[in-house]
Design brief:
0% helix, single chain, globular, mainly beta, 6-stranded antiparallel β-barrel, 113 residues, Thrombin, subunit H
């Protein structure tokens, strides 16, 4: 993972938010934390036939500028990225190098058809 990083994709960073459903429970909604510019690289893909519905998924490596621990702009594995109708669920976040200039998010996109 060395070399130049091209931050050319505009993504929304979202985190889950539990909202009361009025019946004593909660509904998960998503709160936008902000916009990030990222490099999105496809790693692998798969397709599963579920009979009634097929599910296609792809794994991505999403690189963005670093942010300090605890900062709202630093993604966690609970967060996701959104690009229009596309949603990338973050599975893990690591630093690209020892200087923390960039973060690497390992994410999955699933599409039902």
């Amino acid at each position: 993972m060395t070399g130049a990083v091209t931050l050319s994709r505009r993504l929304l960073l979202e985190r889950p938010l539990a909202t009361p459903d009025g019946a004593g429970g909660f509904v998960q909604t998503w709160e936008t934390l902000g916009t990030v510019w990222a490099e999105v690289v496809t790693r692998s893909g798969r397709a599963t036939d579920g009979g009634v519905m097929s599910l296609a998924g792809a794994k991505y490596r999403i690189t963005l500028r670093g942010a300090p621990w605890g900062a709202a702009q630093r993604p966690t594995s609970e967060c996701r990225f959104r690009e229009g109708d596309r949603v990338f669920a973050i599975e893990a976040v690591t630093e690209k190098d020892g200087h923390g200039r960039y973060l690497v998010c390992h994410a999955t996109e699933e599409v039902a058809s």
